[in-house]
Write a structure and sequence with these properties.
371 residues, alpha/beta, Aspartate Aminotransferase, domain 1, 2 domains, seven-stranded mixed β-sheet, five-stranded mixed β-sheet, binds pyridoxal-5'-phosphate
């Protein structure tokens, strides 16, 4: 089946007892045992499994083309689960511009437990130099946040496979609509479902999707169920609901982002635009090859520095000044001050999560603010 159909049907089943077309929210934390001690549908206690979470995990697995999925209470909880599933002493290679929340998690919570290097992963020589006998995982994030760097997924996987190293990809910026890392050979995909899956800036969630239901996945599944960083049945329901429109929303985000990137790219006050859909992007050809759309986030740097960035951001009327991304409304943020003192983000950079408003209104607003 095609993506649009999976998005609508894979996470829903009509209720057998009432005939409700939309699967109801099951709030019960516990499930009744039958006379022989068994459980009707295998549900025992909601931390281990819940019908709404199963529905969500089904649609997530199908959309990414994986064998199984696990849903979490946030993207960071999903990332945390990956790191907790590794043997202590495992070495991880991660990008030098890894999502700052996960970079800080590794540095502050896994110091002394795991080893890690943050490097320019797309540089083959640098990557090969950093592989050690205990390297167990290469973490990639593409396009990256907020520099929109594009990693050649196939190239990294080929190197990882030579050494028997697993590859996990943070696919938050692309979503399975624009990019499917498992089809390119990745072992695991991670998402902050807070972003495009939720799509309306009103819930937090995370997900992991595995290519194979193997021993590593069993460990991950154990961390999910024993660690308990699970989403509520209601949040699972809302996610399943939002996912039904994900393919259409992504198409709108991609369309608007491309036109906004092109507008900014020719603006006299702009130093450079970072968006994988522009032929001027250093990895445009790789992006074109591995993506089915370039995503809905772009960053741009202003020639007149941080003061101009600050002036522009405060003159905008339609864009809301806030962090996060993936919602139907456009957001803009000064990323460096959000990321803290060890940020690699330039101070003249603004990041936009391009929403689903009419593109003419978005361009008009930016044009007036940059005058
Ligand atoms: C937001 C985000 C995360 C973290 O997800 P939360 O839901 O905020 O915990 C991880 N990676 C990327 C690329 C993100 O944008």
């Amino acid at each position: 089946m095609k993506t649009e159909t999976i998005a609508i049907h894979a996470g829903n089943h009509t209720d057998a007892t009432t005939g409700a077309v939309i699967q109801p929210i099951v709030l019960s934390t516990t499930f009744e045992r039958l006379e022989d001690g068994s459980f009707r549908e295998g549900y025992i206690y909601s931390r281990s499994a819940n019908p709404n979470r199963t529905a969500l995990e089904n649609v997530l697995a199908k959309l990414e083309g994986g064998e199984a999925a696990a849903a979490f209470s946030s993207g960071n909880a999903a990332g945390m689960t990956v790191f907790q599933s590794l043997k202590p002493g495992t070495h991880i290679i991660a990008p030098d511009d890894m999502y700052h929340g996960l970079r800080n998690q590794l540095k502050q919570l896994f110091e002394g437990i795991l080893e890690f290097d943050f490097i320019d992963i797309d540089n083959t020589e640098v990557l090969q130099q950093h592989i050690k006998p205990n390297t167990g995982l290469i973490w990639i994030e593409t396009p990256s946040n907020p520099l929109l760097k594009v990693t050649d997924i196939k190239k990294v996987i080929a190197i990882a496979k030579q050494h028997g190293i697993k590859v996990a990809c943070d696919n938050t910026f692309a979503t399975p609509i624009c990019q499917q890392p498992l089809a390119l050979g990745a072992d695991l995909v991670m998402h902050s479902t807070t972003k495009y899956f939720g799509g309306h800036s009103d819930l937090m969630g995370g997900a992991l999707i595995t290519a194979k239901n193997d021993d590593w996945w069993q460990k991950i599944s154990n961390v999910q169920q024993m660690g308990g960083a699970i989403p509520s049945p209601a949040d699972c329901y809302y996610l399943v609901r939002s996912i039904k429109t994900l393919p259409y929303r992504m198409r709108g985000h991609v369309h608007n982002a491309q036109l906004l990137a092109e507008f900014l790219n020719t603006h006299t006050k702009v130093e450079r635009v970072l968006y994988p859909g522009l032929p001027t992007h250093p990895n445009y050809s790789v992006a074109k090859e591995q993506m089915n759309g370039f995503g809905g986030v772009l960053s741009f740097c202003l020639k007149d520095g941080p003061e101009e960035a600050n002036r522009v951001i405060n003159k905008l009327k339609l864009f809301t000044k806030a962090t996060s991304l993936g919602g139907v409304e456009s957001l803009i943020e000064h990323r460096a001050t959000m990321e803290g003192p060890d940020t690699k983000t330039p101070f003249n950079l603004l990041r936009i999560s391009v929403g689903l408003e009419h593109i003419d209104d978005l361009i008009d607003d930016l044009a007036q603010a940059m005058r």
